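Exercise: predict the fold of this chain.
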Amino acid sequence: MSLRQRLVQLVGSLQDPQKVARFQRLCGVEAPVSRTATAAAGESRRQELQLGASGGPPPPGSYRNQCPAKPGGGGAPNGVRNGRATELGPASQRRAGVLRRNSLTGEEGQLAHVSNMPLYYLFCFGTELGNELFYILFFPFWIWNLDALVGRRLVVIWVLAMYLGQCTKDIIRWPRPASPPVVKLEVFYNSEYSMPSTHAMSGTAIPISMILLTYGRWQYPLIYGLILIPCWCSLVCLSRIYMGMHSILDVIAGFVYTILILAIFYPFVDLIDNFNQTHKYAPLIIIGLHLALGIFSFTLDTWSTSRGDTAEILGSGAGIACGSHFTYKMGLILDPPLDILPLPRPPISVTLFGKAILRILVGMLFVLVVRDIMKRITIPLACKIFNIPCDDVRKARQHMEVELPYRYITYGMVGFSITFFVPYIFFFIGIS
């Protein structure tokens, strides 16, 4: 057997959904006995929805967000369920907790028997380390309470890794693991492609970058970082297999891809951050570059929910970078001089802890208010510009012309608030 044949065989083995199902069973996740009947009922329900209640043409949006598979048979339709999950059947007392839903499609996870609840909650936590709730808490916490320089540069690396990961998904177009045999505990990202796992990329890039950026800048034993990296990375990666959202190959590819990205681009992170803060025309260049990256990525595939995620990532990165520029110009957050590095760990005190909690509460309240205001402004405005009904916000957001401006502008303002408006509020009320 030649080397090429062995590689093809290895790739096929690592992509096998049976291995995902086997891992799930090992961790105590199994499909209910009535799964076959539920699948048949779900298929019938889908056909009814497509035909409409009166047997006429399918309702508007029935074929929404679909695109052809990659030529050559190696891909899968995007914007629809990859590795189709069965529809929900009757309520079960052994359903695995409250499962995530796709906010646009309303799709939910499958019924499942979960016999090991500690593992279930552990892997739910692991998968949350790659979701929006974690990001909107993690990056502001670094910028407001720990080290603004490290926080800004973590965002640069995160945006780069996630953007390249999303673009690569739309080039390769591999489907999610097939269900059955896989049990889909989470379907929040089920309408996106699978290869590589961007959760695995984020779960690799963030802990490694944290150690690279902080070791030598702060005084702490290196062993802490050597423990943190494999624990964080393995938890996120294994959680995606446990949830039935990725094959083993997707996760390995995401990990290796991120290591390659860090090896190539990490040496330029300091240069990028310094440019964002100090260059006279940095805001214009930042906004223009992020818009250009968005336009390029949106031509790789037709509209799907992943396009909104890409717009959100690029908007957040642009907003944080622009905010750091104006913060630097106004002297609101000053990085410590290089001659006093490495920085000692400050002693934990009631005052320090209290200020940190207060900054989080005040800052997050302001950020959430900004996000809500921008959502109320951008969605109706986009609907008006493109003549799209906005009586139902969820249906309106399923249109690319609404979702992309909403995500980019709203999260651009969220990012700008995190690095400019909120530090100004802290300075004004005396908790900076």
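Check your answer against the key: The longest helix spans residues 350-385.
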